[in-house]
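Self-study notes.
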Amino acid sequence: MKRVITVALALVVSVLFSVTAPPLARASERGPGPVPAPPGLTSAEVSFQGFGGLTLHGSVLAPAKARGPVPGVVLVTGSGAGVPREHLRTEAVEFARRGLAVLIYDKRSKGYSNLRRSYSELADDALGAVGALRARPGVDPAKVGLWGLSEGGWVAPLAASRSANVAFVIVVGGNAMPPIRQQVWNETSGLRRAGVSGSLVDRAKPGLARLGADAGLFAEAFFDAQGVLERVRQPLLGVWGGRDLQTPPEDNPRLFAQALRRGGNAHYTFRFFPGADHAAHMTADGGETRGEALAPGYADFVVSWVRDATGGRLPAAPAAFTSPIGADQDYPSKEVSPSPWWASGWMQLAAFVLFVVAFTGYPLTALVRRLRGRSVRPVSRWARLASGAGITAVLGLFVYMLYLMAAGRWPDPGPVLGGRPLPWLVLQALAVATVAATVATGVAARTAWRSPAATVATGERVRIGLLVVAGVVFVPWALYWGLLVP
């Protein structure tokens, strides 16, 4: 049954989530190849086994002249299938220049797509990389930890919670909230910066994310980040850029602290770098594009923290959490709960089918009758408006949401009037017209059918009745999506 709803709902919303098919299974995955060693560093190729026996490949950058075994760190990248190791070359080089052995590897694409991904599998990949780095000559195996960026901020703590071989955890632009909450914040804050407020961001965006999760198109939507952090026993460093526009930089530290404290772990440190973006790179436009250079002092701080954390000088967080200094979060994030039963994927699909059948069936029936030369006087002219406005509002909602998602991370919602984009105002006007026309149609039909002289065919009663039922169901549906809410 779950497969049925997944396939059915995918026909409606898969385009909205840019669905791509996963690649063919392979026993080994290799990216562009080795990362050359800059002066003063060495570069060595490594291979290791990830989840399911998949062979992954990477490069280890390390100081060319080190005095004794050095601490090591495995870098876990953010979202995307098959992200090449080169993506984290800047971080790897800067950390290695300061005395760490750094492993960067090509991310898997097998089993990873917009439709399917598993943080558990990615965590096993990361643990395979930890094992490979621990086995390298010149690396102190007791001082190897994990660094995770963005999506890696969910993966690295999960891996650490499974293995005592992980000495520490660093998250950059990480989240202690479910992915669905982070994603909705990311999308709605972009619209808010464009001047949008009201039901489009408060109802429609969260509703679409929940629908995607119901349809199986939002993998790991409700991943239990808090539960994972409660099981992390290693010291943890959280790093956020003050102009992180993808992850809420003020909300997450408090959530990290709460979860770690519940698990009995007070060995954590949070640091903010003003003017830096999601990846702690400097940004020249307020966080919208990623710069090449790391934030000043970031690499020094990370390496110093690692040396302390692995040298017996564990960080000690204050007993009371204090608000972050240096973060600049424009809008708060909000919890996004799973769909209630009455708004579940099944109910959304049923409502959509009803709207298509009823709203399009009314004019199509009239057209067929006309072509057959059987003209029937309509019970009410309002029925035409209910039919036309209803189907336009339903299809228009999904078309507009598709446009917003296809427009990229920072969409142009169109002209904004009083906090509402013009296309959204048009959809809301159509929704109001649908409700008003449905009421008028129902009243007219009731009056006409009660007349002693009325001779209404059964087919016409079914046609009007179905239209009115669709109009009635349209009311809670439109309220849920925000079309009837300011």
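Second protein, same conventions, sequence then structure:
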Amino acid sequence: MDDCKLVHFDQQVAGHDKLMLLSTNDLIVVKPCKKRELDFYQDAINFPDFQDFIPECYGTVRAATEKDLKLLDKSDILTIFIFNLKILQNLCLENVLHGFTKPCILDLKMGSLLHDQDATDEKKKRMIMHSLNTTSSKIGLRLSGLKVYDTVKRRYARFEKKYGQSRTVDNVLEALLAYLFPVSKYANDVENYAKHIEDTITEQDIIKEKIPTKYSKWVIECFIDTIKEIRESIIEHPNLRLIGSSLLFIYEGDRAAADKTWKSMLEEDDLPQNKDEDDSRLEDDELPPKMCDLRLIDFAHSDWHAERDEQDPDLINGFDNLIALLESCLQRQSQEKL
């Protein structure tokens, strides 16, 4: 514990940029939040069928002891929260980026309603206008943040916030294509919105080629399947009120890492299916690499206590539109050999 401190989490693509990591590993992110978000995760325990769709919650970090205070005190970011613990919690969540070498990240804000019932009149008006002036009100989703890795040029591109805000119904598909195919014309066409971060890797054996078509196709199909599962689960829980929540998309952007993961997946498919549960080849701290992941995140304005018999139709419409958009991405990929 004495060698452990909290450091800034530099992979966040949307929100208030206050996530942190423990310096000793990247398994857990620490998120300052209000009690409502903590309550959401605690209530979610009562809905185990929904657990796979959100990051696992490990509780909170509190300055309850001298050792805890010492840990929190090492982070300048948390200083303000140490003296305000009655209002804010420091939530410990699963880092869903763990297992990726060069994660490509997309944050999509879902639904058209962006404020809860506790918002001030001023904030309600602001959020309503924000929804009306973006794709939120029109198709029930909005691009909030985007970061992709170009494995050919060996650099990250982090797209500015105004890129998502400026997307329209007519060009949101191109934005998804820019995310899914970072070496394509779609990504190059919007480079004026991107801040580039050059890679420092110098090893000669790293493959400088785009992600193979079969990998990308598999990833998009996985995204579609997972979104359909989340959609059905949300419909089955009309009491679940999601306001301002996002879908976080992640896929492996490094060619060498993707090749290794693909090979591992093929080998796993060839294994006998009747293995004993205790015949595990991987320890808890040796998780297999990931090709992609997709989770619901951001529950500062969400809860499980809506008194209704039917889910928010605008939210479901957003999921339907997203599925249609990703299916169009598959068609474009096939037609244009992306």
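Instructor comment on the second fold: The domain at 103-273+284-336 is CATH 3.30.470.160 (D-amino Acid Aminotransferase; Chain A, domain 1).
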